[in-house]
Amino acid sequence: MSQQPSKQRHLITVTNPRSPVSEAFRALRTNIDFSSVDKQIQIIMVTSSGPEEGKSTVTANLAAAYAQADKKVLLIDGDMRKPTAHKTFSLSNRFGLSSLLSQQADLEEVVQESGVTNLFIMTSGPIPPNPAEMMSSNRMSAVLEELRQRYDMILFDTPPLLAVTDAQIVASKSDGVIMVVSYGKVKREIAVKAKANLDRVGAKMLGVVLNNVKRKASEGYYYYYYGN
Predict the structure, then answer these.
(1) b/e for 27-37, b at 16 or more Cβ within 10 A?
(2) What pTM did the predictor assign?
(3) How many Å apart are CA 191 and CA 185, to the nearest integer?
(4) How many CA atoms lie within 13 A of 76 on its CB side?
(5) Which is nearest to 10 in space by CA: 108, 91, 87, 121?
(6) What is the spatial distance between Cα 133 and Cα 135, in angstroms, rounded to a whole number?
(7) How would you class 185 by CB atoms within 10 Å of its CB: exposed for 0-12, middle for 13-18, buried for 19 or more?
(8) Of all helices (H) and strands (E), which one includes residue 74?
């Protein structure tokens, strides 16, 4: 049963679905759906070149946009170094992805209701000493295959590309990647270097979200999508 969304932070697609920003997320959803004709896009990784570019906010709102389209959606907080999903959705982080990969909990224990209809959350779980090794494990691959059978869409929030190798590992296991770039903050050469890291693991680049582009003062921030 859906709960009231008042406890969510930054979920403009839920709190103000008619806003221009919410419409931009729906446009992003549509562009992703039409981005591949040969293979279904089911697991999407969202990342950025560096910290504080808004990737977690984009991931949460895009996940909500898919849920509003009657898709059964799972958002996975794959940032096992600086997790945020449990704060965004006011959930417990006692068990999560790290618990599942270390076999300290099963799938039913680590998936929680978000308070948004059709949207489920797997928090990061306790911070482990070896996140990259966990991400690259056979266990991770097996978990993703099982999740494909249970959910229509799986969105994976990961650490920044240039900080650690976690995102590159997840990218190789995903159907597509979205990179969030903060307008006016990230230098072109940094963004190019981040994309090169994705190219090295054969990741399918779906496009880039240009974040924090100011429009009218009343509209706040605007999210813009463009493909390769």
Answers:
(1) ebbeebeebee
(2) 0.86
(3) 10
(4) 30
(5) 87
(6) 5
(7) middle
(8) strand 73-77
Contact between 206 and 227 (Cβ < 8 Å): yes
Instruction: Determine whether 162 is exposed, middle or buried from the number of CB atoms within 10 Å of its CB (0-12, 13-18, 19+).
Output: middle
Specify the 3-state DSSP secondary structure of 43.
strand
CA distance 113 to 129: 27
Those residues with Cβ within 8 angstroms of residue 69's Cβ, 6 or more apart along the chain or in another chain: 29
Backbone dihedral angles phi then psi of residue 30, each to the nearest 5 degrees:
-65, -45
Tokens of 13: 């697609």
Residue 186: pLDDT band by 50, 70, 90 thresholds?
low
pLDDT confidence tier of residue 222, bands split at 50, 70 and 90: very low
Alpha carbon distance 29, 64 (integer Å): 10
DSSP 8-state secondary structure symbol assigned to residue 3: P
128 burial via Cβ count (<10 Å: 0-12, 13-18, 19+): middle
